[in-house]
Amino acid sequence: MFQIGQIYSRTDLHRAHGGQPQGGIATPRGFAGVLLFTGEGGQRYGYRDRWDGDVFRYTGEGQRGDMTFVRGNRAIRDHLQDGKDLHLFEIEPEGCRYVGVFACGGWTVERGPDVDGSDRSVIVFDLVPQGSRSDEAAIPPPGVPLEELRRRALAASAPVVAPHTGNSVHSFRIRSRQVAEYVVARADEHCESCGSPAPFRRTDNTPYLETHHIRRVADDGADHPRWVAAVCPNCHRRAHHGSDRDELKRRLAERLASLEGTTSA
Ligand SMILES: [Zn+2]
Ligand SMILES: [Zn+2]
Q1: Pick from 22, 25, 41, 44: nearest CA to 33
Q2: Is 241 left (phi over 0), alpha (psi -120 to 50) or beta?
Q3: Of these four, 67, 93, 95, 194, which has the most CB atoms within 10 Å of its CB?
Q4: Torsion angle, alpha carbons of 199, 259, 129, 111, to 10
Q5: Is the sign of the CA dihedral 63, 67, 70, 75 positive or negative?
């Protein structure tokens, strides 16, 4: 996909992927990602994006009045449910420098002026940088029924509808783990791609499977379980690097859709 540190022309980005060439948040149809732009020229009024420890605090969009969860703001809040990555670009004089892929860990509301100078509420998202954490495969807690694990996973992957109070990175990790635990339990010791038994057991005798996110680039985050599969390490590498990865993805998507009772999108 995008190379971290590389400069892209915004015009080219939208030519390739679609989406609105203006504004800070672009939501191209048919592309499994939301493009976020930070810096001067992002055209978000009164933005105050900044790093705060491990999270990047990203101001939502909206010129006048209170910011609400529509369009770009909704796309950021619900990106895991939508199976979309958040790609952050920093606007520089030469173009847009790719910062990397992020996930929304939560959001808060601050006060600030709108374009007319009136005081209004401003949504600020906590964006958590994403890496590949697939080798930290989840181990379902023993004795918890699958239905209960599924209930937790669905709750974890639901949009965060209240501003967070505690550490958003921590709660993001917990929610990611709850989804992974359910998915591994759902797989019942077999790879959801090739159907083979887990290739080996860990030292604690639990079967080894990895979680793979079929829609997003990052293998991390509380995506809806229809976008996450438990797979053997071989299928996992193949899903990322194989020449037949698109076919693999299509079959996996169908299988997950039937398991989760939803149609594949
Ligand atoms: Zn497999
Ligand atoms: Zn993966």
Answers
A1: 25
A2: alpha
A3: 67
A4: -160
A5: positive
Distance set, CA 169 to CA 4, 159, 206 (Å)? 21, 16, 27
What's the CA-to-centroid distance between 247 and ligand 2, angstroms?
15
- List phi, psi (to 5°) of 196: -75, 155
Quote ipTM for the complex. 0.95
Expressed in angstroms and rounded, the spacing between residue 251 Cα and the centre of ligand 2 is: 15
Ligand nearest to the CA of 196: 1
Q: Considering every ligand atom shown, identify the ligand nearest to the alpha carbon of residue 249 and give its number.
A: 2
Residue 34 pLDDT greater than 90, yes or no: yes
**Average predicted confidence (pLDDT) for the chain:** 88
Tally of CA atoms within 13 A in the half-sphere of 259 that contains its CB: 24
CB under 5 Å of ion ligand 1: residues: 191, 193-194, 232, 235
CA of 158 to the centre of ligand 1 (A): 28
| pLDDT tens per residue across span 194-250 | 999 999 998 888 899 999 999 887 777 788 999 999 999 999 999 999 999 999 999
